[in-house]
Amino acid sequence: xxxxxxxxxxxxNGDIPSNTIYENSDFKVIMDASPATKGxxxxxxxxxxxxxxxxxAETAGKLFQLASVVARALKEALHCDGxxxxxxxxxxxxxxxFHFHMHxxxxxEGDTVTLKWEEHSxxxxxxxxxxxxxxxxx
Length: 138
Ligand code: AMP
Ligand code: ZN
Hints:
Elements lengths: L6 H7 L6 E4 L3 E5 L9 E5 L11 H22 L3 E5 L15 E6 L19 H11 L1
Antiparallel strand pairs: 1-2, 2-3, 3-5, 4-5
Bound molecules: adenosine monophosphate (AMP) and zinc ion (ZN).
The site of adenosine monophosphate has 11 residues, from loops.
């Protein structure tokens, strides 16, 4: 997808409106248009990175610093009972907007959010080979 067609780039440029919470030279924090719960926000880097494979480590580090600040603000403002941080990469993982973004989803007793997966036995996997392959790639 071309950067010019990116909905989050358009939000960052002010070409389309958003409910902005915070902005600095690197990031914009907006309310999600279809929130999972009350106070679901997105942190967008201003630069167009497609996904986690595309973003540089320095920006990713700054983004998580900001996430910790926003998380505390959500807790203070909304008195949520918990919070999930979610960041999808690739369609298979649920990414629908291909401009890197981090979800902060406040959680409340009795909310309807599900993020549960089926657990598998490690017996069915060659864990040692997986471990070695990842170590080599690092
Ligand atoms: P993902 O599925 O991880 O790519 O998340 C994309 C998120 O962007 C979804 O939660 C959408 O509700 C949200 N979204 C899409 N368009 C807009 C928009 N114009 N303003 C705010 N949030 C949006
Ligand atoms: Zn973009």
